């Protein structure tokens, strides 16, 4: 059997399970593509935020409607959102 705490929780015939749900919110911000790289300069287009050109799951969803660049050229911002209040009894 597991640790001492697990044996005590099983003594009354019920077991509580706690599940932690972590939702990660990913947003793509300004475009960082260097449009002048071929001539030795540095210039970005000024696109402030990625907007998908098509529906989720299609190839067009990876292209920005504002600047036409692939999503990978946009700065990725990750925000973890933890919902630690989720418990299940059973």
Automatic annotation (TrEMBL):
Could you list the residue ranges forming a coiled coil in this record?
none
PANTHER family the UniProt entry points to: MINI ZINC FINGER PROTEIN 2, ZINC-FINGER HOMEODOMAIN PROTEIN 2
Does the keyword section mention Plastid? no
Q: How is this protein named in the record? A: ZF-HD dimerization-type domain-containing protein
Record organism: Urochloa decumbens
Q: Which domain of life is it from?
A: Eukaryota
**One Gene Ontology cellular component:** cytoplasm
List the molecular function annotations (GO) for this entry. Answer: zinc ion binding
What subcellular compartments does it reside in? Cytoplasm
Matches recorded under PROSITE patterns: ZF_HD_DIMER
Keyword list, A-Z = Cytoplasm, Metal-binding, Zinc, Zinc-finger
The UniProt entry, under Pfam families, shows: ZF-HD_dimer
What is the predominant subcellular site recorded for this chain?
cytoplasm
Domain named ZF-HD dimerization-type: residues? 28-77
């Amino acid at each position: 059997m597991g640790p001492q705490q697990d044996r005590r929780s099983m003594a009354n015939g019920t077991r509580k399970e706690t599940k932690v749900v972590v939702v990660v919110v990913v947003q793509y911000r300004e475009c960082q593509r260097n449009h002048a790289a071929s001539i030795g300069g540095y210039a970005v287009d000024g696109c402030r935020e990625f907007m998908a050109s098509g529906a989720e799951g299609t190839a067009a969803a990876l292209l920005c409607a504002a600047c036409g660049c692939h999503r990978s050229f946009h700065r990725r911002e990750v925000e973890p959102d933890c919902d630690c209040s989720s418990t299940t009894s059973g």
